[in-house]
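Worked example 3 (structure in, sequence out).
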């Protein structure tokens, strides 16, 4: 029975790799669909430039790698994050929860929202007499939301005398429902799924995340009556109901831990993001696939105080024209991040400063996240249960 399940899961993994293969499909879909789901959650991850596919070990695994939910060493865990972008114009929030089901499996829930609120609707700013009437201004919100349910389970397909109980491998799956809304003008419902795996070998961790393997869709409904008058006055075509697709994405990660001395530890992590929606402005790009690397580092003191840094979002940027001089030169830009963390008995508080020094094109942002854990689990639940143990010599 285990072998059948194993071959089924492996089959799903390989099939999903070939889902984005047709180039025609990439050309018929938006390149940046559902991009609010590509920002990331948790100040720890953002400080490390999102290079956490192989190392996430808390409730944020619902987003980063559901297979890693089994690394949570508490029966219940909750997390909250808030970030303000563009001087508070846009607000990005995340809340998540996870619970141990048994010694081999966890479940998780998460809600993600990116919204711009209190947008003035000035369509009726002028009354019938052509005079400005500020009382006619209404306000609306443009918000993208996602609800995610995840399940993770440790398996023992790879096992033996030198493996801890549970084997060295875990699988996870996430089901997500997307809700997007622009005032009363348009709204959309979407559905998709992710699958992932995580593997630990000695001080190494490996992770593989396959996002949107079902090709996540958004079914848009347009309120034409709300738009008809203004669009007719401006000679614009009224948009119609449509279906927006999000093509699959693959993220592969690897990380290694180092113990510098009894009190100081270090961790180095790297992720490689593969997108299949056409040519992007990344380090490696082609019509079939674009590849974007990201790296992160974490230093800890007594597993309580943390210093983090990362680098990612590499892009080739063209020089701006200055005066009468036109330049065709380009240069590489990147986004450096950094952050700190404090781990208390039940609380973990993390902070990230993204895009330090404004080296990249996007403005920097402050991100805070808090994790609260309840009911420490017995050792059988610990993440080390999937670490390979050195083979012990048998007594003669």
């Amino acid at each position: 029975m285990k072998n059948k399940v194993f071959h089924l899961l492996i089959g799903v993994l390989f099939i999903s790799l070939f889902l984005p293969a047709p180039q025609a499909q990439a050309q018929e879909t938006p390149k940046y669909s559902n991009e609010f789901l590509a920002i990331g959650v948790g100040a720890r991850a953002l400080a490390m430039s999102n290079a956490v596919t192989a190392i996430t070990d808390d409730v944020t695994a619902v987003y980063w790698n559901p297979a890693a939910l089994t690394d949570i060493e508490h029966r219940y865990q909750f997390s909250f994050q808030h970030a303000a972008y563009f001087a508070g114009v846009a607000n990005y929030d995340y809340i998540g929860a996870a619970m141990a089901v048994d010694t081999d499996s966890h479940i998780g829930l998460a809600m993600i929202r990116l919204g711009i609120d209190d947008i003035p609707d000035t369509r009726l700013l002028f009354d019938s007499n052509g005079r400005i009437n500020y009382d006619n201004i209404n306000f609306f919100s443009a918000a993208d939301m996602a609800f995610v349910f995840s399940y993770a389970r440790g398996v023992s397909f790879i096992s033996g005398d030198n493996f801890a109980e549970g084997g060295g491998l875990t699988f996870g799956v996430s089901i997500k429902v997307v809700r997007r809304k622009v005032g009363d003008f348009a709204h959309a419902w979407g559905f998709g799924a992710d699958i992932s795996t995580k593997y630990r070998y000695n001080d190494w961790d490996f992770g593989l995340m396959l996002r949107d393997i079902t090709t996540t869709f958004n079914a848009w409904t347009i309120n034409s009556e709300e738009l008809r008058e203004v669009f007719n006055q401006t000679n614009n075509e009224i948009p119609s109901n449509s279906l927006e697709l999000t093509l699959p994405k693959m993220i592969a990660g690897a990380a290694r831990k180092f113990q510098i001395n009894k009190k100081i530890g270090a961790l180095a992590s790297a992720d490689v993001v593969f997108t299949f929606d056409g040519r992007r402005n990344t380090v490696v790009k082609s019509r079939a696939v674009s590849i974007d690397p990201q790296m992160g580092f974490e230093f800890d003191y007594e597993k309580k105080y943390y210093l983090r840094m990362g680098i990612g979002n590499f892009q080739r940027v063209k020089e701006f024209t200055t005066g009468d001089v036109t330049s065709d030169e380009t240069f590489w830009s990147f986004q450096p991040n950094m952050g700190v963390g404090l781990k208390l008995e039940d609380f973990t508080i993390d902070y990230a400063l993204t895009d330090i020094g404004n080296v990249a094109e996007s403005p920097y942002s402050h991100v805070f996240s808090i994790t609260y854990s309840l009911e420490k689990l017995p050792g059988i639940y610990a993440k080390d249960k999937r670490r390979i143990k050195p083979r012990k010599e048998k007594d003669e």
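Notes: The radius of gyration is 24 Å. The first strand starts at residue 74 and ends at 85.
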